[in-house]
Specification:
This protein is α/β, with parallel strands linked by helices. The chain has a single domain, classed as Rossmann fold, CATH 3.40.50. It contains eight helices and five strands, in the order E-H-H-E-H-H-E-H-H-E-H-E-H. A five-stranded parallel beta sheet has the order 3-2-1-4-5. The chain is globular and about 40 Å long. It starts with 13 loop residues before the first strand and ends with a helix.
Length: 161
């Protein structure tokens, strides 16, 4: 799979969703919705149902999604995770992509290396609040958006249109 180029002003349409987006969505389910109604749950649903949105992952990430579905004990979130898993396109990650990403993470962050390499191969933006991805983002190897950044770029722009 070749990396797809984006023009600098174009909104991204290819994403890898880190598990902390799911945790944040669960928290959204458990608390009163914010006044404007835009939150991580809205973002997650938008990424799943958006017809022009492509989602990518690897076997490790899918296993993490499945584990969350079992552990979180929420019928609603389990359904969302099932829909998410169904939309994710699995990426085969070559060793050279792993090597390119490896130096940006500490020894115990093997999962993060795979997630970053998935973004690299798919040309996808990683949505995460995990600060462990800051150095690879800062180096420009992959694009990383925080959850709030993704909400602003994907949801708030749609509301303005």
């Amino acid at each position: 799979m070749k990396k797809r180029e984006r023009s600098s002003g174009a909104a991204a349409s290819r994403f890898v969703i880190d598990t902390n987006v799911i945790v944040s969505a669960l928290e959204s389910l458990l608390r009163e919705p914010r006044e404007e109604g835009i939150n991580s749950l809205s973002l997650l649903v938008r990424l799943i149902v958006g017809p022009s949105t492509e989602l990518f992952g690897n076997q490790i990430l899918l296993h993490e999604y499945e584990r969350f579905a079992e552990e979180l004990n929420s019928d609603t979130l389990t359904q969302i995770i099932n829909e998410l898993t169904a939309k994710v396109q699995l990426v085969e990650i070559p060793d050279d992509a792993l090597r390119r990403c490896l130096g940006f993470f500490s020894e115990g962050d093997a999962k993060d290396v795979f997630h970053a390499a998935t973004c690299l191969i798919a040309g996808a933006v990683l949505i995460t609040n995990d600060r462990d991805f800051d150095s690879i983002r800062d180096a420009g190897l992959i694009e990383v958006w925080s959850i709030s950044q993704a909400v602003r770029k994907l949801l708030m722009d749609e509301l303005r249109e």
